[in-house]
Amino acid sequence: MSKAYRYYCKAEEIMVGVGFIIIVTLTFLNAVLRLFDKPIIYADDLSMLLFSWTAFLGADVAMRHLRLVGMDIVSKKFTPKGQKVLALIVYTIIIAMLLVLIRGGFRIMQINGDRPFNTLASFGIGYGAVTAAMPICGIMMIITCLTKIGKLFAHFGDDAYTLKSEMAREDEGLGEENAGVDQIPVNLDDPKEVQ
Q1: Which in 35, 94, 119, 185 has the greatest CB count within 10 A?
Q2: Best CA proximity match to 152, nearest among 164, 142, 139
Q3: Neighbours of 105 (CB within 10 A)
Q4: By the 8 A CB rule, do 141 and 125 touch?
Q5: What's the predicted TM-score (pTM) here?
Q6: pLDDT tens per residue across span 81-118
């Protein structure tokens, strides 16, 4: 992975984290200040703006780290090459769906882009700032898919390579799917091990 791409990925992860923290902080502060009849009038709209960006950027981060919902109950019955072919097909379908999302997102931006965005309109922020998250992050997700496809093609002949094993190394073994990865599997047919 190139250094520039790693910085891009890290910057995206930081933006998601910061966006989430700001949303939680704004929502909590606004709830507390409403008790004293001093609400932050921009809090709800700013939270909505940040939520749209944080959700779509977070989806890209989750896709990059293979944390989106997935079931490998069928795919793990395939051979290693068959699993790679299936992954290539899935990523191709995802790209096709993202292209539809991007096209629709740009259309929504054309229709609603100049519409004033509630309380944030006084700062010159239109509804286009919210709807822009869909096509821009869709493009970012396509970049992620193309990166995954490139890795699958580069390691197509290597039966030991999987995207999950690479992510486990990059994520330093974090995540519930990697729990116990350093341990010897239990043989359930051996009565000594099962007690």
Answers
A1: 94
A2: 164
A3: 21
A4: no
A5: 0.79
A6: 888 999 899 999 999 999 999 999 999 988 887 888 88
